[in-house]
Amino acid sequence: MKKNILFLLIFFLFFTGISVAEDETYTIGTFPIPLMVEDKNTGIFIELTKEIAKRSKIKIAIKVLPPKRITTYFAENKLHGFFPALDVMVTHKISKSEPIYIKTDFGFTKQGQPLVKSIADLTGKHIGMTLGYPYSKEITANLSFTTSTAPSDINNILMLDAGHIDVFVVEEKSGIKAIEQSGKSNICYDSGQPLSRQNVYYAFQSDKTGQQLALLFSKALVEMKSDGTFENIMSKVDE
């Protein structure tokens, strides 16, 4: 299957007539994420992106800014692309790379309370959310429950423990890390029942350059997933 995808990507690269300039530097935006994006030179996503650029034989400049500024600059065509991107973060037509991973959000509850297994289980409850976090529209557009935001995942865990919220919705690894950092041991979730799933990818402009960059990044990602490089880089999250 991966070989078929790689063949199709190579076919499009050579026969669509789209090309990128070898001497041009492409500006790719991102935003701070603990462990994943520490600065423009450090982080798991940074390492992944640099390896992709190396394999694609293109020059890139990584710009690290707050999330809102990155998405604004991208919408204003001041960036060739940005990462990590989700559909809820873009407002216009774009070119997407092969997914980096699938972001799954779960409902965390205080021990002794019913586990949250679906969005329907949130009905009538007070839901804690983290400010600036890219929640799916299944969550943000739902009027069957009330929400409040906190500045960090740890704040939400503490509010959950204190009974100020009924459920904290967040990505699995982020939630687990926040529990560890908060020192609380009475927070639970059902690891087999995610509330939402969102593809995470590299977003590029929809012009010819953006289309070519998306194809190049996709080709490199497929190769890296096939030869084990992708897993070697991304597995550092669990170290």
TrEMBL record:
SMART domains given in the database record: PBPb (SM00062)
Keyword Methyltransferase attached: no
Coiled coil: none
Signal is among the record's keywords: yes
UniProt KW keywords: Signal
Family: Belongs to the bacterial solute-binding protein 3 family.
UniProt name for this protein: Amino acid ABC transporter substrate-binding protein, PAAT family
Protein source organism: Shewanella psychrophila
Lineage: Bacteria, Pseudomonadati, Pseudomonadota, Gammaproteobacteria, Alteromonadales
